[in-house]
Amino acid sequence: MATILEIEDLSVHFPIHIGTVRAVEDVSLNLEEGEVMGLVGESGCGKTTLGFSILRLLRPPGRIVKGRILYHGQDIVQMSEKEILSLRGRKIAMIFQDPLTSLNPLFRIDQQFIETLLTHEKGLHKRAAFTRAGNMLESLGISPERLLEYPHQMSGGMRQRIMIGMGLILSPDLLIADEPTTSLDVIVEAQFLDLLNDLRKQFNLTIILITHNLGNVAQLADRITVMYGGTIAEVGEANAIFDNPLHPYTQGLLSSIPNIKLDKPKLKTMPGSPPDLVNPPSGCVFHPRCPYAKDICKVQKPETFSKDGRLVSCWLYG
Amino acid sequence: MKNLARYIITRLLLTIPMVFILLSIVFVVLRVMPGDPVSSMLGGHAPERVIEQKKEELGLNRPLSIQYLDYLWQICRLDLGESMVFKQRVTKAIAEKLPATIELTIFGILITLFLGVFLGAYAADRRRTVQDYVIRLYGIVVYCIPVYWMGLMLQLIFGIWLDILPISGRTSPRVFASTFEKTGLYIIDTILVRDFSALGDVLIHLVLPAFTLGLVLSGIFVRLTRANMLDVLRADYIIAAEARGIRHKKIVYKHALKNAFIPILTMMGLQIALLMAGAVLTETTFSWPGMGRLLLERIYLRDYPTIQGVIIMIALIVAMASLVVDIIYAIVDPRVRY
Lengths: 318, 338
Ligand SMILES: Nc1ncnc2c1ncn2[C@@H]1O[C@H](COP(=O)(O)OP(=O)(O)OP(=O)(O)O)[C@@H](O)[C@H]1O
Ligand SMILES: [Mg+2]
Fold this sequence. Notes:
Distance between the termini of chain A: 29 Å
Number of helices of chain A: 10
Largest sheet of chain B: none
Helix content of chain A: 25-40%
Mean pLDDT of chain B: 88
Low-confidence stretches of chain B: none
CATH class of chain B: Mainly Alpha
Radius of gyration of chain B: 24 Å
Strand content of chain A: 15-25%
Structural class of chain A: alpha/beta
Shape of chain A: globular
Oligomer: heterodimer
CATH topology of the largest domain in chain A: Rossmann fold
Bound molecules: adenosine-5'-triphosphate, magnesium ion
Number of domains of chain A: 2
Largest sheet of chain A: 8 strands, mixed
Strand content of chain B: under 5%
């Protein structure tokens, strides 16, 4: 399989008045064509920031301070404004957490579709764009007549489907879905994940699925990246990670989800709180909460080790 | 649509008590104020007997309550009465002056909106840059400047020093009273008779007063637009639009501005009274023969019926304008249903 995205030593900082938020620090990650990569981690660990960086959507003061993001070998970080504009929506799409607020309330659905289409396909006829939008809705199980409605006339699940339809209308090959189901109820969520799975095959999509719901990831993801405090703790096959988490943080994360299959529910919460990214702990960012912390963890950042086909950043495996 | 019609009718009916209350206040205040139409007409040295006779004639010697009820009854018959100082129907006096005020305020609003909204949006887009600080400073300064002073300064700069713009009146003296008979809105009248040199003359006279009014009020709108735009630019749908590759300019001036415009419209509705007040002052500064100057002149003369008539008219304009604003609101925002 070919590599679609290669992130190399990426750091993203937010200089603010009290210091610099190191939201993403030295992150490296490879994405193979056609896979679904689950990106999990506690709130504030830098998932959204990483997603935004890939499309260069960071808001000031956020800035990529170092590293490369190679999309089919081209460095997104170095691209001109024009190049990045033609990538957004056409090659790489992103959908967001809250479908209720992700559509502009003052424009009809068809207007938002048509604008997206005409932005990238100059010279396309409005009527043709309208038809394409209608077909897209139909394939998402929404009647094309609803194109003429405004976002507030639709349910949350419908809006999220419309968001993804708008994302996919130009057949991009990479989709970044930032907690797409967080604000949906359980049934709609399940339907949406099914849909995502279908679309993935239909469009031959590579997906980065950002979530803190490990259930979603288990259902959909081929591989999982676990982030902690702006860094990557562990990357590997989803099944392998669920069966045998290597990084102590991953272990903690997995044991903190309720498991109904177990006779004795062992629901543990991890002690401590997420790190302060302005003054991150020395050495390994996880060491203050780590039950296995050694001396070296306090002074030196862990290297990334390869074990059982997985990548894990922890001195336990050095 | 049926709901909208019902809403409009309700709003119109609500203006009746509003006008009634306003009118009662004006009625009392005018009569509590020292001076009356007769002494201002005849001067301080007229013999007592003449003054008394004149007062009797105008009904000013009757008890206040009777005068009040009488006036209300007259209003209910949609009759604004006759001036106490000149032989002139109040409606006629108003009809002569109203178009001038309408022309001035419409251009004032346009300038205010244009400057306020675009500067505010631009400042929000360029947040924390030099342009942003300059525009914010402009907003504050302009907001603090009294209308008079702004008018005088513009007259001084453009009328006297640069000598490129007229500083008073609606037209040059040489112009053609007969041209302006149809609507009294000089711009429309001159276009109707295809007299384009007169149109030019009318427009050039409009520049300074309209800018005075427009600049002063634009301060509020700069600040309001900027604040709203900053909010809107943070919204999810803005990032989502950006993620679809839509150009930044289009996002700011189409997607964001349309959303930011909704609270601005609300503000417009509330500011119309202020705009009318500004218009009164502007008219005085620029000898603009509109309702504002009419009002001021007749206040000096204590011409009760005309003053009351003008106030009613202004109240109705304010009510109408805010109704129009509400209707625009319903058109812009699909979520609004009455
Ligand atoms: N505009 C900003 N200014 C300063 N700090 C920011 C800004 N945006 C994000 N951050 C910081 O960057 C870090 C990563 O935030 P990010 O939104 O990427 O986390 P996340 O993993 O997506 O969290 P969540 O699960 O809550 O969405 C956080 O510590 C956050 O406080
Ligand atoms: Mg997030």
